[in-house]
Amino acid sequence: MTQTYPRESAASMAARLDAGATTPTALLEESLARIAALDGELHAWAHVAADQARAAAAEAEARQKAGRRLGPLDGIPVGVKDNLFVKDMPARWGSTFFRDHVPDRDDIVVERLRTAGAVIVGKTSTPEFALSGRTFSPITGHTRHPMDPSLTPGGSSGGATAAVSSGMIPLAIATDAGGSTRLPASYTGLVGLRPSNGRIPRRWGFPPMAMDFQAIGLIAGTVEDVELLYAVLGGPDPRDPTSQRLPADPPIAANEVFRVGWLNTYGEELVDPSVRAAVEEAARRLAGLNCEVSPVAPPYDLAAIRHIWGIIPAAGVARMASRFPERWATDSSESLRPMAERGRALAIPDLVDAVDRLNAFRADVSAAWGDYDALLMPSAAAPAWPAEDEFPREIDGRPGHPRAMNVFSTWVNAVGYPGLNVPGTPHPDGRPIGVQLVGRYGAEPLLFEIAKRLAG
Fold it and tell me: Where in 28-169 does DSSP place strands (E)?
């Protein structure tokens, strides 16, 4: 059964607000009504802050009436993932360990949303510690796919994608440490950006589970809406030194020719035939859209990144387990317990060796990139699967495994490059499939331009 409303872009909402054809309060009330109608089944929300949102909408409406809208986000409903800090709203990280945690400050991205006049509707669901390819937590249960509630919308930003895909809100702020923005966007037919490390600054929040692998993610229904968010939320801040190392966005000419390398397999790794076909079709289309397109070998060593990923997040989970020694065995998610045990078994030299390997991995990817402006590849190895399963039980006629879906995503986090999921040709049964564009540091404007050519 389809659980969606017609989606309206944030850009369209902003145009109607400018024209006086609607009000921030009307937009919010429609959003709240849709949440009330759908979320009992979809579980996209960990917390809905109706009173706070209504106060923000009233302020935006007063500006609208005075002809003083702050910009395109002023009065637009937005969701924020539950592992990010929003002052006076719960930040539970999908975990009962933080059931009563209410931050007393906003993270930088939330500060910028408020400055732009956005109406923060609430916190979207995430699995515990944002460490799962589906979205299930003891706080919210199973988050479900709006097109088919028997399926998962993915993770760990499944609440964000379910909320946007179903038409509850037009925009969502997420995170991405191993694919957590791009993969759920792929499963739900949305656009999802994992920006370059530091492009969207951050300062306060939960301790990182995987060093600097995680970045703020942006989710919307169109490339233009992600660009809108990016323009407001990106840029340096002295509280995040990493954000001050990136150059300003370069200008991109509309008719500029780009060199795009594409791949849709990695050795004998599992990839659904429909995913391979979607990437090949996208490559064929780009070849006629002012792009020089050619096949390319993967610039990354999958075995190397799997080794690194097997150590660094395990150490992060072990750290959390050490903070709750009396409750960990009974209160943590089942999938996290073996990860914590692996982390506890690590010696300090193991972690230092993983960091050394990570630095070598980054250098190797940079050297192997070649002279391509962007790479085109799958976002996820298969479309959405049953919500009760942690991973697809079968891909291309072979048994699935927990690592199968991240073949094309986690390497991007390891090097800190930007990755953008855009909708591709759907599966024959109608399930959405996304394709991924990856660029070097600071290449977001280039990725947006290529994505708009594909969408056009």
Answer: 45-48, 77-81, 119-124, 136-137, 141-142
Q: Which of 81, 132, 166, 186 is catalytic?
A: 81
- pLDDT tens, position by position, 398-449: 999 999 999 999 999 999 999 999 999 999 999 999 999 999 999 999 999 9
CB 24 within 8 A of CB 17: yes
Q: Of 340, 356, 372, which residue is a domain's last?
A: 356
**Domain carrying residue 226:** 10-239
Q: Give yes or no: residues 317 and 221 share one domain.
A: no
How wide is the angle at C-alpha 98 spanned by C-alphas 186 and 384, nearest 5°? Answer: 15
Backbone angles phi, psi at 48, to 5 degrees: -110, 120
Query: Which entry of 95, 157, 180, 196 is annotated as an active-site residue?
Result: 180
* Residue 180 among the catalytic residues: yes
Residue of 132, 156, 166, 333 with catalytic role: 156
Reported as a single tens digit per residue, the pLDDT across 380-390 is: 999 999 999 99
254-to-290, 387, 440, 452 alpha-carbon distances in Å: 10, 41, 19, 10
DSSP assignment of 335-383 equals: THHHHHHHHHH--HHHHHHHHHHHHHHHHHHHHHSTT-SEEEEESSSS-
CATH number, position 135:
3.90.1300.10
Residues 90 and 229 in one domain: yes
| 156 annotated active-site | yes
How far apart CA 291 and CA 259 sit, in angstroms, is 6
pLDDT digits (tens, 9 = 90+) for 88-129: 999 999 999 999 999 999 999 999 999 999 999 999 999 999
Window from 3-7, 86-90, 177-181 with minimum mean pLDDT:
3-7
